[in-house]
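Lab meeting, item 3. Inverse folding demo.
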């Protein structure tokens, strides 16, 4: 019998393998759409961090389950965990996640209403995320002013 940590690790390995295949399909989808190789690479790098680090950080969430966690990722986790977080990287991740979940919706892997909800959430919350990353990276701002304990 496997202990909880072993079960978690095994499940993560399985999901990472599935994610690799899914990102390969996504890359092909972007290529068919006419995106440049460097742009495709950037999107896949952003998504690898989201899918294989954030969604597997404390649980074993698959990409389809992650559509409802984008706000938590961009508004908090990414800002804290990615040393490179800034306004530009938030916006780049928004673009990557929108394209990825458009791909997922087109493939029937997420419901169209989930994708529509994600787009609305991004529209509503992006200014908050950008403000949070700006405050977080400002040495003049007290950390507790950004995220009160």
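The presenter then showed the designed sequence:
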């Amino acid at each position: 019998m496997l202990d909880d940590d072993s079960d978690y690790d095994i499940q993560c390995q399985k999901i990472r393998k599935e994610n690799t295949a899914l990102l390969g399909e996504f890359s092909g989808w972007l290529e068919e759409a006419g995106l440049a190789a460097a742009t495709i690479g950037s999107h896949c790098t952003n998504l690898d961090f989201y899918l294989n680090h954030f969604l597997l950080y404390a649980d074993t969430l698959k990409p389809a389950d992650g559509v409802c966690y984008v706000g938590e990722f961009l508004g908090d986790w990414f800002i804290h965990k990615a040393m490179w977080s800034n306004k530009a990287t938030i916006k780049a991740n928004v673009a990557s996640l929108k394209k990825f979940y458009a791909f997922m919706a087109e493939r029937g892997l997420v419901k169209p209403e989930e994708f529509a909800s994600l787009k609305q959430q991004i529209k509503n919350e992006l200014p908050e995320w950008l403000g949070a990353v700006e405050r977080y990276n400002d040495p003049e701002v007290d950390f507790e002013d950004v995220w009160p304990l």
